[in-house]
Amino acid sequence: MKTAVLYGEGGTFCAGYDLESVSKAEHQSVSEDFFDKYRYMGPSIMKLRKPLIAAIEGYAVAGGLELSLMADLRISSPSAKFGVFCRRVGVPLIDGGTVRLPRVIGLGRALDMILTGREVDAGEALQWGLVNRIADEGKVIDEAVMLGKLIASHPEMCMLADRDSTYYSLDHTEEESFANEFESCKVLAESIKGAKKFVEDKKKKSKL
Fold first, then answer.
1. Are 118 and 67 contacting, i.e. CB atoms less than 8 angstroms apart?
2. Which domains does the chain show, CATH number per domain?
3. Which family does this protein fall into (predicted)?
4. Contacts of 71 (CB under 8 A, 6+ apart)
């Protein structure tokens, strides 16, 4: 598998944690072993080795928004809704939202969502870079699969090296990031193969 598409069923990507279960909690403070048992509520903080595309329909709010931020790219329907709705009920972001959201849309816009808990529609999300593109209603998963196939069609080692280098640069100095980027030369064999194919294809076209 070279890429994957993450989507929700029933017209909603993910609306976050089940607040009904939270309402039944008997204690108003967490136990000492809570964070050992439930460090994160879901897979949101996983570091995936391959590109992930989130196909978003309906709501991607609270923990669902955090889940979408795990993806490298996000495609939404025109009617999709985003937001830190957990702000409205006093539930904090604990699945990477305060870390990834500012990286994706910038600090000011992230704080707008985090502090207000307001709804962000697909148009604004696209303008902010929260989603990469908007697909027609009912076509979101199809568009995500097509995008995944496009990514998978490229030489994989080089693509993954550049992807890893991009994420690496977020947490390291410019000098360290330049040095790490240069390590991509390890995929030179794939580069030579790709260059040969390009030259051969160019020669074939010139003969037509």
1. no
2. 4-152 (3.90.226.10), 154-206 (1.10.287)
3. Belongs to the enoyl-CoA hydratase/isomerase family.
4. 6, 52, 53, 54
